[in-house]
């Protein structure tokens, strides 16, 4: 397999207002430091890390919504120079256009891609069917449940046929049952469409359940601590995949890796508060 | 057995129908009871000498006066004069305020340039400028249209600005991630997202247009509902004066109703958000 995505020593530094020094002064804030890893073509990679470790910053960079301070991000060997329809982002808060119907939302991305009007409707229907929402074409987002909204958002992202699907904690706002259903659906869709998926989460279970490989991030400034090849992944289709010995083992391994990071980031917070 | 169950069903349905119409009547009674009571009081109070019938004639006399104005065509002429002025002013205000508001909301530089002027003007009561408008534009139509234009511009403008500024950043991010260039982002995301808030401004402007116009017509005009009220009062045609006031009240009510329903239609997708 070839590398689809390459992070080549990527660092991202923000300039933020310095409250202590007063108005007009800025200090530097390192969100990501020397992130270096790659994702293979067609791979499902989950990215797990403590809160505030720069997961979302990493995704913004990958989506082309912001530029790295140093280093390069390559897709198919070409450097990213902005947003593009070869990558699709699925957000935690769905980001559906509330004035458009489910179908209209999916057609939006197709229109951006320049798909002729006649084909748009057909494609939209097909992808609504893929996410199990046939018959909901004309519903507006406020008429749909959280889980349904996220299904529409996933359909919208898949419809314009990107190579890479970037998912930013897409199931974090859903209830436990809906989340499990959607996790299974996502695996099914992934197997069917063979997309490369980068899935960000703060849930260890979710990371182990979904990812072929799991990248564990350190606390701020975020960097990749270790990438684990998930031996439990092949069993994901089993009825009770979450209680197989492999699952438990991998889960524990990641938990160990994260434990230090979580306590480190908590100490950081405490320091900030006392300062 | 079958016929029994059928007859039961029929009675049930009839009962449901009766209950439905009863419910409807109940609602109507509830909503109009106080108005009817007030009108009754209006009718009776002057007749039994609670108020002076010269200044406060019974409601039936007012209706009579109103009908007289309708038959003579006077009311229609005044009504037309008012409505034309208010629509022209209102319309021009929309044509100016919406595009300008979009520009100010979207481009910080336009906002920085225009904000001080806007702050100054919007805190100036429209009617305070009426003498100036009459001086500049004369006593004819232009000054009336101009004052309506002035009064309608600000609600629309300010709502448009805040609409553009308050578009959910996540929607913008989502559209940008699909590679939308800025101009498409503007008319495919910013504009539709802003419409409900802009329409709130339009509704407020509609109310303002009538309000300011009537006042303007009272000060300097040769026709219009405001002129009618002022003129009849000076000529001691008291029932006709009340007739004019009622016409304005109904006009305002109808206009507001139309604008509220339009607003609801345009912001249907905003419910439960």
TrEMBL record, chain A:
GO MF annotation list: ATP binding; ATP hydrolysis activity
Entries under InterPro entries matching the protein: AAA+_ATPase, ABC_transporter-like_ATP-bd, ABC_transporter-like_CS, ABC_transporter_ATP-bind, P-loop_NTPase
Gene3D superfamilies found in the cross-reference section: P-loop containing nucleotide triphosphate hydrolases (3.40.50.300)
Pfam families assigned to the protein according to its UniProt record, in alphabetical order: ABC_tran
Transmembrane segments: none
Domain named ABC transporter: residues: 14-244
Keyword entries, A-Z: ATP-binding, Nucleotide-binding, Translocase, Transport
Protein known as: ABC transporter ATP-binding protein
């Amino acid at each position: 397999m070839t590398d689809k995505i390459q992070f080549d020593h990527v660092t991202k530094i923000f300039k933020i207002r310095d409250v202590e020094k007063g108005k007009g002064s800025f200090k530097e804030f390192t969100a990501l430091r020397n992130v270096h890893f790659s994702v293979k073509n067609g791979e499902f990679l989950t990215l797990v890390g403590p809160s505030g470790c720069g997961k979302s910053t990493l995704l913004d960079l990958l989506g082309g919504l912001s530029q790295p301070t140093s280093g390069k991000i390559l897709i198919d060997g070409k450097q990213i120079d902005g947003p593009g329809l070869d990558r699709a982002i699925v957000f935690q808060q769905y980001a559906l256009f509330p004035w458009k119907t489910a179908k209209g939302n999916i057609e939006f991305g197709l229109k951006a891609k320049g798909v002729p009007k006649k084909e748009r409707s057909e494609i939209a229907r097909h992808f609504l069917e893929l996410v199990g929402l046939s018959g909901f074409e004309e519903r507006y987002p406020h008429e749909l449940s959280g889980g349904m909204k996220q299904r529409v958002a996933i359909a919208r992202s898949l419809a314009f046929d990107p190579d890479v699907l970037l998912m930013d904690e897409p199931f974090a706002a859903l209830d436990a049952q809906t989340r499990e259903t959607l996790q299974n659906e996502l695996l099914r869709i992934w197997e069917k469409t063979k997309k490369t998926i980068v899935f960000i989460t703060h849930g260890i279970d979710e990371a182990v359940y979904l990812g072929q490989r799991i990248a564990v991030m350190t606390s701020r400034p975020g960097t990749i601590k270790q990438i684990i090849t998930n031996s439990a992944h092949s069993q994901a289709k089993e009825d009770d995949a979450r209680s197989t010995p492999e699952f438990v083992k991998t889960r524990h391994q990641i938990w160990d890796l994260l434990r230090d990071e979580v306590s480190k980031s908590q100490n950081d917070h405490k320091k900030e508060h006392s300062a | 057995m079958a016929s029994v169950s059928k007859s039961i069903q029929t009675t049930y349905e009839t009962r449901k129908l009766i209950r439905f119409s009863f419910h409807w009547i109940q609602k109507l009674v509830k909503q109009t009871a106080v108005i009817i009571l007030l009108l009754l009081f209006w009718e009776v109070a002057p007749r039994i000498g609670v108020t002076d019938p010269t200044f406060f004639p019974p409601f039936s006399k007012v209706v009579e006066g109103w009908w007289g104005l309708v038959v003579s065509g006077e009311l229609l002429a005044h009504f037309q004069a008012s409505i034309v002025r208010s629509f022209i002013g209102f319309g021009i205000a929309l044509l100016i305020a919406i595009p300008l508001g979009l520009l100010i909301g979207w481009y910080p530089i336009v906002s920085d340039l225009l904000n001080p002027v806007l702050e100054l003007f919007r805190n100036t009561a429209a009617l305070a400028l009426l003498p100036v408008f009459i001086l500049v534009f004369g006593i004819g139509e232009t000054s009336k249209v101009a004052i309506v234009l002035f009064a309608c511009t600000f609600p629309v403008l300010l709502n448009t600005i805040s609409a553009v500024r308050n578009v959910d950043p996540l929607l913008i991010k989502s559209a940008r991630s699909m590679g939308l260039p800025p101009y498409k982002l503007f008319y495919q995301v910013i504009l539709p997202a802003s419409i409900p808030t802009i329409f709130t401004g339009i509704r407020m402007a509609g109310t303002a247009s009538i309000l300011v116009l009537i006042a303007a017509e009272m000060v300097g005009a040769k026709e219009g509902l405001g002129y009618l009220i002022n003129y009849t009062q000076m000529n001691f045609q008291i029932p006709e004066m009340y007739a004019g006031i009622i016409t304005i009240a109904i006009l305002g009510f109808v206009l507001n109703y139309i604008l509220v329903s339009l607003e609801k239609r345009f912001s249907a997708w905003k419910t439960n958000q």
